[in-house]
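Risk mitigation, structural track. In case the binding assays with magnesium ion fail to produce interpretable data, a predicted complex structure has been prepared as a fallback.
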Amino acid sequence: MTTRRGTEERIPLLLGVLASLAIALVAIPLVGLLVRVPWSNLGSLLTSDVVLDALRLSLISSIAAAALSTVLGVPLAWLLARRRFRGRRVVRAAVTLPMVLPPVVGGAALLFALGRRGVVGEPLDAITGIVLPFSLAGVIVANTFVAMPFLVLTVEGALTNSDRGVEAAAASLGASPLRVFWKVTLPAIAPSLRAGMVLAWARALGEFGATVTFAGNLQGRTQTLPLAVFVSLENDRNAALAMSLVMVAVSFAVLLGLRDRWWNNR
Amino acid sequence: MTTRRGTEERIPLLLGVLASLAIALVAIPLVGLLVRVPWSNLGSLLTSDVVLDALRLSLISSIAAAALSTVLGVPLAWLLARRRFRGRRVVRAAVTLPMVLPPVVGGAALLFALGRRGVVGEPLDAITGIVLPFSLAGVIVANTFVAMPFLVLTVEGALTNSDRGVEAAAASLGASPLRVFWKVTLPAIAPSLRAGMVLAWARALGEFGATVTFAGNLQGRTQTLPLAVFVSLENDRNAALAMSLVMVAVSFAVLLGLRDRWWNNR
Amino acid sequence: GTDSDSDTLIVFAASSLVDAFAEIGAAFEEQNAGADVMITTGGSSALRAQIIDGAPAAVFASANASTMDAVVEAGDTAAQPEVFARNRLEVVAPAGNAGGVSGLSDLARSDLFVGLCAAGVPCGDLSRDVLGEAGVTPSVDTDEPDARALLSKIVDGELDVGLVYATDAASAVDDVVAFATGVDMTTPYLIAPLDGAADPELAAAFVDFVTGPVGRAVLSDKGFAAP
Amino acid sequence: MTASAQPRQLDARLRVSRGDFQLEVDLEVSGQQTVVLLGPNGAGKSTVVDALAGVCPIDAGRIVVDGVVVDEPATSTFVPVRQRGLGIVFQQYRLFEQMSVLDNVAFGPSAQGVRRAAARRRAAEVLDLLGATELASRSPRDLSGGQAQRVAIARALAVEPSLLVFDEPLAALDVEVRADLRRALIDVSAGTGALVITHDPTEAFLLADQIVVVEDGRVTQRGDSEAIRMHPATPYVAALTGTNLFRGTAHGGAVTLDGGLTLHAADTHAAGPVVVTIDPVAVALHQAEPNTSARNTWSTEVVAVEALGERVRVVLGEPFEVVADVTPGAVEALDLRAGMTVWASVKATELQVRPATS
Amino acid sequence: MTASAQPRQLDARLRVSRGDFQLEVDLEVSGQQTVVLLGPNGAGKSTVVDALAGVCPIDAGRIVVDGVVVDEPATSTFVPVRQRGLGIVFQQYRLFEQMSVLDNVAFGPSAQGVRRAAARRRAAEVLDLLGATELASRSPRDLSGGQAQRVAIARALAVEPSLLVFDEPLAALDVEVRADLRRALIDVSAGTGALVITHDPTEAFLLADQIVVVEDGRVTQRGDSEAIRMHPATPYVAALTGTNLFRGTAHGGAVTLDGGLTLHAADTHAAGPVVVTIDPVAVALHQAEPNTSARNTWSTEVVAVEALGERVRVVLGEPFEVVADVTPGAVEALDLRAGMTVWASVKATELQVRPATS
Ligand SMILES: Nc1ncnc2c1ncn2[C@@H]1O[C@H](COP(=O)(O)OP(=O)(O)OP(=O)(O)O)[C@@H](O)[C@H]1O
Ligand SMILES: Nc1ncnc2c1ncn2[C@@H]1O[C@H](COP(=O)(O)OP(=O)(O)OP(=O)(O)O)[C@@H](O)[C@H]1O
Ligand SMILES: [Mg+2]
Ligand SMILES: [Mg+2]
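Fallback model:
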């Protein structure tokens, strides 16, 4: 249904002003960034091996982390929202911790646990030969660690909000809990699930501290864009700005590419 | 209504396994961290001026940033979910950028924009005498910049999901759009709003890169816990671990303190 | 906290100076009643960026010449910078030396996890100069953003070998074994008072104090070489 | 009962399209009239409400409430619903789940600037009027279906609107409450006009000063209860009032129905398109081909048999669907059951033939 | 019509508390019976559905479906609803908004392992049976109220359950569809039992093999339509069937009602607690104090006047609420209006006095 112009109420002044301030808070720094970007020699800065490698690794690892966060995080959110079990509050509080920990500390914690000398990492290495640090898998683990909580909390909030009567109806038609979850519960919270996935993806794309601490920083293997940016900030600021621009452009492209329908499916 | 034991369906195996993996991914590193914490001389490590100053600043700035994110971000989310306007997709994409930008770059962007020599900062200083960088206000601005997008996306997702018929009913009873928003729309998405606020608060509490770049790292003025942790990581690892523990404890206390009712109000 | 800004001396110092400057600052406060020295540490270039962007620092101590040059160029220094210390690199392996490291040439071994400072940060540039001089092509697994991050990965045993500053190795003497590189190359540390100092005299006094006998003694105690 | 000087409460020319569905309805409510919009499912009744409530802005036409144009695409006029002075009960209730029942009802007065305490007093009054006082502190989530509907009605009444719009206000209510509420509605709407939407003919006939029948988005008949009962214009209305109605073409004593069948009629003057109605009581049933003076006889299948108070209603199928009302005795005598074959007869004089007007 | 060898479809002793509300209802459905649960709003009818659906597990008692105990707290038995073989239509429909109507209806068969294409064929069939074929590709969000209810019914029918449970299945449906559906329901539930919940007595009387009347969480009467109609046990049932019913105590030719008023009765033998019923037709109205042989006369206020087919129903207020059915002529003669004062009379012989059983 297309709406006739003039049939929507004016935006309330207060909301309009606050929303504009919010937009300004985000937009002004971005403009500040764009102003400083070395537009003239952008081309050469961006086609270097370093940037292309980092872009590739960033896309792979952030998408993998978002996917992993979704696959693991949605069931966890469901559990938190739908089942009462002992220790539920502790689990919920624990899940938010990776958001609170400074990423560098998070990376250190990952090393303590999954590093070559880590509590779990050492037996893992001994038994399977898998070493997470200094590998792409490690980058993905670090990204998932920091990104998943965003997905879990978003989805849990939506599940708490959603109508359980419909789930009861589905069960009464003979659907197993898994089927109810997959066919009824998830589609009903689709917009929030999408928001959670975007949050997780974006957080993973921008992730720096945990990654560099846990997975190290090697061009072509573990150096994602934020790492490349950080390293160049030290010595070649223009390159750093140019790479930041790449990140801005990539996420803009992805988010604009997700058609409006993807967000507003009703 | 208290549920009789045994009346809930068993947790589907697949969901149980995935949720357990999710919990493990979060819990194992935390355990790793706890194992390494220097429990014996924790007392002396934690009562230093540095830690107390940083804790105070962290609490103030993260709460202020969460509040500011809510005040500005909720109206923006409403605008994105409820009104069609030109550039809506661009605004939505732009809002997510601070999540994607490496925090350090975000801090640099803030400096370019709001720094003493910045596009907006210079006139601001000249006219009002307000200087944001290297001040507590700057820390709050930096934290809000990185934290607000999480709130906006979470709330927008929930708004998209929510029943607009109820809003129409409220309007038909004579309520202004602002009243509808405040009395009907917001209460209806309360769980997601809370999730968004927790996300924003947690993100602000853990924020490091943008803060250090934009607001510097002065003990007692701008040095929040993550900054203090980072500095100690360089020279006194035990102190860094002890401080990380403080952060974990604070957020655990806050999240457990938010009674279960706060989350599950239905 | 800060009582009054005029008594507070904000010093921006390269990360590797943390321990040394903490001691020097304390000694300076003792000698100058009412002075409150606040040390802010970070990567040299991050500090440089903040100074150029107007951070209220009174003194800048950098771990290489180029960052200091940039600050001078920006016109933010109040006096000519001085070299006040030097640092060199050492080959470092975790205590126990499970990889059997014995010198610079082990950095070329692909069976070991090898770490360096990233190119562009002072210790990374120096590392590459040293390796080039010795004709060793390292088999690198990670370019760490600074020497401290690199050191802590070695201390934890995550890396088998790396090149860090001698001062860093000295600070972790119980947790690592160190070997000389066999190449005589050092990096200079420079210090200068800054234009934006709230109390320029105090800033100049602090610079003098660092380059004076007390400063020199503390620095050599922490493993720095004389200028 | 048309108002004279006083402006009409509602004067609407609605043209709305919703997906494939097209609505074209003109409506007037004036004075203290209760207009009932009656129609089958999916006819567009709730769409009329949505148009009045601004949820579905009209594509063409005009809505005037109390003399004020509130929606007119041609002049780009659009007044938000909150300024339209309507009290609407939506078909799905749409209660505010996060507030108590009392606060739900007090919401309207509060929104109109009444102080909190006064708004709650007003709410308590209205709840009392609807016999829902004991629900005041409950959450809407904990109400039964009928209780929720009562609260929705109370909420709309609390704002003292200049026009009440009720979408199926009584559907979920039990019979006792329904009678009470019907009285309350008549009381309340004594001062104002009311537009009541229903698919229940009894309700319509009881409440209405005027009935507007809507089918498939168009008005098919207007009039007071009496007129609609006596002269149903469409098969739907005929079914409502328990009459058989067919369209066909008359030609000298016979009528060929649109289905193809030809019936004999007593009226030999009618010609051209006509509407034929047959009272169900006039349809007689027989076990075998009847030897009767009735001019129209045919064999047919019994589709259903339903008790209807003292009579029994028998639905007949092919070749043409007719309803017959017979006595329980006849049912027993014929052993009527769904699926069996019977003979039916209608006297030519029982066919009422009127020229088709629309 | 009780089943003999075959196990009962449903045998339930339900004890549930929900907030302040207590439900204590015993129910049986056997063979091909349709049992109708009839009761006023908030009586606990939907709570019965919730208990059967496992949404509100019972606190005590036992639910047996098709011979299998599905809920019994004493033995900690609890079978999830999906294994109970029930086809439930909830009062709020609860359609899946993210699926098409067809997929909504196909959901049940799919969940029971029917292949996708077959499930959709089955769904199309059921939609066809309910005359909703043209809705198949629509979204539930775009349906009218009645259309949504039809889809909800189709969805429950599609699973071919061993017991159908319908919570107000016809409330939102228009009269034509209602009649169709009623037939479809009777058809479908011919093979299985059905528990139909309604507040509409006509619906109850039409559908029921047995009626269970629930009031305030308790069963107040059971029986077939005839029994309930002839011998209403409570004022609610009496009102449903258009009868006046009072409780009181008889003592030699007089009955003192629970309200305090004493009436004369012809029956002089009754003593102790009794139920008194008065046919509305037996209540006569007069402009002034009547000079009549009727032993009971009193002055009262007219609360409401409602047309009721060929009769007019007059509701009288203090000192005791009675309904009188009079002719339109009488209304005109007396100029009856709500609010006026009239005299009423009832002959002692018109009081039917029965001993109170419950
Ligand atoms: N949001 C919508 N989008 C598209 N079509 C719709 C929408 N809502 C209703 N319709 C269709 O418009 C037509 C009219 O619907 P409406 O709700 O007005 O019917 P109604 O007369 O109120 O019926 P009922 O008695 O069943 O409530 C129906 O065919 C319906 O399917
Ligand atoms: N979730 C709930 N929590 C507490 N009380 C409830 C809840 N749901 C219903 N009730 C109360 O339980 C009683 C029975 O409600 P129920 O829904 O079973 O009534 P009903 O007979 O279906 O009525 P209706 O005809 O209005 O649908 C009512 O008083 C109702 O207010
Ligand atoms: Mg409708
Ligand atoms: Mg109910």
